[in-house]
Queue: 2 jobs
Job 1
Amino acid sequence: MINWFVDHFVPGGRDDPTIFKQLEEAAAEIPRGCDGLMAQPYWSGVMDPHWDSAARGCFIGFGGGHGTAHVYRALLEGMTLDQVLRTELMERNAGLEIKEYLAIGGGATSPLWRQMLADASGKPVLISDTVEASALGAGMIAAYGAGWYGSIVEAAGAMSGETEKVEPDPKTWKDYRELLEIYRGLYDSTAAVSRKLVAFASRGTKA
């Protein structure tokens, strides 16, 4: 989603090797809640818990003072709030406590998002020394299969590195809880409109 935004709406797109650093620095200066802008990150429908293929992404709260960095931060906050909401639902339904997150993939390279997830969830976020964890896991399995190690557990122990821990900042907790309650109602407020728009678009009305 972040790549989509940068490729389509940020001059130069990902051809500029400094673009994410620029966006991160600018978005870090914007207060929590993006000066009233919120994003729902359902670009391709949504699975758990709504199971709605017609759900769509939206931004709400646009004003004349919002710019590129606001949109970037709103996307990060939307994905974060959605993750926290899903985690809390899982904990409640399964009767368990999730004590920490392990961030992998491209998002794990974003210091702003890592801290945002820790703050909004109140849980530490662990960062592996390689964000390409899927490839590393495949390598561990292959190393065991090739007979280099006696078990996958042994291969994992030998081939994994240290993790960095991002601790939540308790001073931000109240703000994120308030934003979470606002976000909680966003899907129900937009679902019917999204279904009508999807149905209209599927008719293939010509220009």
Note: Residues 68-94 form the longest helix (27 residues).
Job 2
Amino acid sequence: MFALIALGGLLGCGFLGTVRARQTRSEEKTLRGDAAVGKRLFERHCALCHGIDGKGGRGPALNRVHLAHAPDDEALNLVIAEGIPPSMPGGWFLDENDVANLGAFVRSLSKIPPDPLPGDPARGAGIYAKSGCGGCHVLEGQGEGYGPELTGIGDRRSASFLKQAISKPNSALPEDFLFVKATMGSGKTIEGIRANEDSFTIQIKDAGGHYHNLRKQELKELKKLRRETPMPPFEGVLSATELQDLVAYLASQRGKQ
């Protein structure tokens, strides 16, 4: 009797192990992702920044085989789930299947050929230098100021966004960007970009890249210049060809591969 019970137990364990193995294989199949389902999720949650076809906008173009922050599928799913602070929010509302489906769709975008850039990056490098861009931006360790870091900008922003930001910079400001002007009790003024702020203090980064930590109660005036930027618009300053060349140069900046 005991032998029969033991045999039944062994058979039962074998049966359960087979079922679990099938379930695991089934789950793995599900977690590989369905690009068609991912497309609908992408259009709902990601297209605002990456474009409806993944060719980029405020966020970078995704129709590339090699993605800077996602060398493999595991890394891609991690980026989708956790985001890339501070520019890309995490998908905290997505479950594992959603993440896998989104990842499958993003990978499918690599089959879409990238839009050709009509400009010449070599000429664009000259325009970058001639226009004094290094006075406000750092690129590969060169330059200074309080403008956004441009090293690897081609991996973070699409060509269309770069063109918009150069032509009309106040139309392409990040949501948390704020240009401020603080007047001290002595009458001295400090202009720059808000780096940090709480109820009692504000930290300002000036044009030289220096940080100023100020107590609000000691200020005579604090102006928050919303939707303003120290970067001048280059629309009408650069010709159409020069603008294309400068965009091509910046879009080619992809950091160390």
Note: The chain has a mean pLDDT of 85.
